[in-house]
Amino acid sequence: MSRDYRFVQVDVFTDRVFGGNPLAVVFDAASLDAREMQAIGREMNLSETTFLLPPAHPECAARVRIFGPAREVPFAGHPTLGTAWVLAAHGLLPPGTRQFELEVAIGPVPVELEGDPARPSFVWMRHRDATFGPELADRAGAARALGLDPGDLLDGAPVQSASTGNDFLLVPLRDRAAEDRAALDWTARIEGAGATAALGVFVFTVGPGGVYSRMFAPRSGVVEDPATGSASGPLGAYLVRHRLVEGTGDLRIVSEQGTKMGRQSFVHVRLVARPDGRAEDIRVGGGVVPVLEGRLTIP
């Protein structure tokens, strides 16, 4: 007997359809096993697809499993924000709810809704404090991995891994032109440079208008990701740690991502910058818009 599952698709980190990062959310997925979820994630062929399950932690609104085209990921930004918006917009939260938690593989993630709780205009998620790996010694190898010259890297800023739940290799570049030329050869170059644990390679440029960024994640079956919330929390902490943003106290940073691939996204980062270079109370947020609804049939 075939099984039917309702799903919706939303665009995250945008205020208009066909921008941002698309996400599929599958409802009532408890009868699906991991193999089937992975097959659906591959079929959707988006950066991620989420599956709604009953929570194991009673304080959480739902348990959420997150699958890319190639594998399950323990934590991700646009799936968390998009799923939170879907729960609110489809009446799956108590009326008037603005703050709640979603249970993902790394544990409960707090989220907060802005605007109408039944149709939020903006969604925020809280990140853990960032941790950093050693600075990558082979800067020339990192540049070659991206099809760039060593001179395209930003002087005085290290190539370094960072995580608030997922590990990313952060590569600061000197200008937007160099970033737009970047094209990752993961196997031949990045692994040779010693960055084997990173989920993706996040390149960025800091300018007067904010941050311009791109993210490559071939290990997850994603050549390039239009918007990466789980990398943007570590990005904010990196910028504070290496004094690439000015000021202390409450800071707000906007990262433009996905423009090069035709899906412009705006990822908002809020944090508290300490004088010693630590970033605390890291939050990542953005807008979410609905795109389509459908039914998935599994024989």
Strand fraction: 35-45%
User: Averaging pLDDT over every residue, what do you get?
Assistant: 94
- Full CATH superfamily name of the largest domain: Diaminopimelate Epimerase, Chain A, domain 1
Order of helices and strands: EEHEEEHEEEEHEEHHEEEHEEEE
The CATH architecture name of the largest domain reads Roll
Number of helices: 6
**Class of secondary structure makeup:** alpha+beta
- Rg over CA atoms: 19 Å
How many E strands?
A: 18
Biggest sheet statistics: 18 strands, mixed
Q: CATH top level of the largest domain? A: Alpha Beta
- The CATH topology of the largest domain: Diaminopimelate Epimerase, Chain A, domain 1
Distance between the termini: 7 Å
Number of domains: 2
Proportion of residues in helical segments: 10-25%
Which stretches are poorly predicted, pLDDT < 50 over at least 5 residues? none
Write the layout of secondary structure elements.
Layout: E1 3-12, E2 21-26, H1 34-44, E3 48-53, E4 60-67, E5 72-73, H2 77-89, E6 99-104, E7 107-116, E8 119-126, E9 131-135, H3 139-145, E10 160-163, E11 167-172, H4 176-181, H5 186-190, E12 200-207, E13 210-217, E14 222-225, H6 229-241, E15 249-257, E16 265-273, E17 279-286, E18 288-298
Parallel strand pairs: 2-3, 4-6, 11-12, 13-15
Antiparallel strand pairs: 1-2, 1-18, 3-4, 4-5, 6-7, 7-8, 8-17, 9-10, 10-11, 12-13, 13-14, 15-16, 16-17
